[in-house]
Amino acid sequence: MKEKVSVFIVLLALLAMQPMQAAKQQPTQPPSVDPRAKEMLRRMADYLGSLNSFGVRVQTTREAIAPSGLELDSDQVFDLHVQRPGRLHGVLHSAAGEKQFFYDGQTFTIHTPSLKYYATFPAPPTLDQLFQETINHGLEMPAADLVFSNPYQALTHGVTSGMYVGESLVNGVNTRQLAFQTKNADWQIWIQSGEQPLPVKLVITDRRRSGSPRYTAVFSGWETSPTFDQSMFTFTPAEGDRKIDIKRAPGRRAPKPMSLPTK
To answer: Staple partner for 45: which of 22, 61, 84, 152, CB 3.0–4.6 Å?
Structure first.
């Protein structure tokens, strides 16, 4: 990622773990997914897709493996507010400072208050289209998979196997734990039990990389029918804010859903 825009780039996505055995799939075999796991994931995705607006806090831990083999964690907190089909506001908190995201169905803006920098570009009218456009500008949007109009399609892209693990307690919340594999990644998701099947926790293990680093996201503070002041989706520069350019990155494709490595 180019240095001039690195201050704005967010690596989330969307975000204790007992070892699980999963049957290895031969390349010629069709996907082997437990019907219970598929049904539970679809129910969660359908519920998310039915929400006209929502808010959630996502606490993430990204693991990196040092050359010595030492595991190093980096934490972030992302507060996300969405109004479909074309409104989004987010605030990312990290050791590097606060970053703000604004999308009003016409314009997308990223703002770093501490540096008084902001960057903006014309945006398409829907959130689904927006995420391709952010990739074209060299950016990754946090928690994008939860915002898609069809979350199930995004979540199951490249899945080769899956299973229902069982019931589990996560931060005092009763959940159902599911586990899936793609070609080069394992991922688990914990879904709240009951009438609101919301995601509570996500763990992705990247098997492409040495040490198989993990990415963990914990979701809390869900609001499932909030009413927003529409002004929160539009950025208004403050005195002293400076606009910088985000150059398009020709030929870049949108990342695989869930940022799961599949090739």
So the answer is: 152
Residue 175 forms part of a structural domain: yes
Q: How many residues does the chain have?
A: 263
Write the burial class of residue 143 (CB in 10 Å: 0-12 exposed, 13-18 middle, 19+ buried): buried
Q: Could you report the per-residue pLDDT of 140-154, keeping only the tens digit for each?
A: 766 777 788 888 988
**Given a cut of 70, is residue 24 above it in pLDDT?**
no
SS3 assignment for 223-235: ECCCCCCHHHHCC
**The model scores a pTM over 0.70:** yes
| Cα 100 from chain centre | 16
Looking at the domain assignment, is residue 37 inside a domain?
yes
Q: Cβ distance 62 to 11 under 8 Å?
A: yes
Residue type, 253: R
CB neighbours of residue 16 within 10 Å: 6
Structural domain that includes position 231: 30-259
Q: Which residues, at least 6 apart from 104, have a Cβ–Cβ distance to it below 8 Å?
A: 86, 87, 230, 233, 234
Name residues whose C-beta falls within 8 Å of residue 155's C-beta, 6 or more positions apart in sequence.
41, 45, 145, 257, 258
**CA triple 258-259-263, angle to 5 deg:** 120
CA distance 227 to 7: 31
